[in-house]
TrEMBL record:
This is Transcriptional regulator, XRE family. It comes from the Bacteria. GO terms for molecular function: DNA binding. Residues 21-92 form the HTH cro/C1-type domain.
């Protein structure tokens, strides 16, 4: 028997992004996935709203409003919905952040000017490892000489497009240096959605998406998708200017001064790769 769950709202504003995310996952499930029997007359893709509401112990009207972005939910209610919708841990964190249950972020732009000078010496301490600092919108705040030598200087990109999402999807130099760029680019978009939380609904994110729509409309399904994932460590083979190839190992971490920011680090794994990267920086 389903135990009814109280449906208090969180203190955050209602989120259309949360409603769309829940609806997308509801439509992916089949009745058999949750122990229900499918009928021949079923016309709704996936589960019906009333089925999700009943299995989660919430009211149908309230769940409908949640998908419509008219209300938001407490952690307890979202946890119940997550179990019904079979969300994995990354998707649960994403839903929580969309509902406002995440580490508080400073208003757009606040703290960015102070964070970049603090982190810049850290980036510069890796002279043979391309490194970059991103804010919660994935705007590029700072980078080191190795990053500029390999990928090109972000300072040469228009400020409205100085964003990792745009660089991954639309920058021709990056695509030349990293021929197999699509898997990493897709993972970057998934990770952005997973960690962005309220930033997904902010004006800066809309501006980045408009720039992408103008420059690479054929990839619009990337920013229209609802899938989320962590940015996984991996080894990439790059072909920098001047010929030749080398490997770089990708890792990422959050600066302690701002957990909503992100540092990406590409480390040469062998002595030969480090020598190649040092030559590129010196050149």
């Amino acid at each position: 028997m389903t135990v009814p769950v109280t449906t208090p709202v969180s203190t955050a504003a209602p989120s259309p992004q949360l409603g769309a995310f829940l609806r997308a996952h509801r439509e992916l499930l089949r009745p058999g996935d949750v122990g229900l029997t499918a009928t021949a007359r079923r016309r709704t893709p996936g589960l019906r709203r009333e089925e999700v509401a009943s299995l989660s112990g919430v009211g149908l009207a309230w769940y409908t409003w949640l998908e419509q972005g008219r209300v938001t939910a407490s952690r307890q209610v979202l946890a119940a919905l997550a179990r019904t919708l079979r969300l994995d841990p990354v998707e649960v964190r994403h839903a929580m952040r969309l509902a406002g249950h995440h580490e508080p972020a400073s208003p757009a732009g606040d703290g960015d000017a102070a964070l970049a000078p603090v982190v810049q010496p850290v980036l510069d301490a890796w002279p043979a490892s391309p490194a970059v600092l991103l804010d919660r919108h994935f705007d590029v705040l700072a980078w080191n000489s190795a990053w500029a030598a390999l990928w090109g200087s972000p300072g040469e990109v228009a400020p409205c497009r100085r964003n990792l999402l745009w660089l991954m999807a639309a920058d021709e130099r990056l695509h030349t240096v990293l021929p197999d760029w699509v898997p990493l680019a897709m993972n970057v978009f998934q990770h952005f959605r997973a960690q962005a939380g309220a930033a997904l609904s902010e004006d800066r994110t809309a501006q980045v998406y408009r720039a992408l729509e103008e420059d690479v409309p054929e990839l619009s399904h990337w920013w229209g998708c609802r899938s989320v994932a962590e940015l996984t460590a991996r080894t990439l083979t790059v072909r920098p200017p001047g010929g030749g190839a080398m490997d770089l190992s990708l890792s990422s971490f959050h600066p302690v001064d701002d957990p909503s920011a992100l540092i990406l680090l590409f480390t040469p794994p062998t002595a030969a790769d480090r020598a190649r990267m040092n030559d590129l920086v010196a050149g």
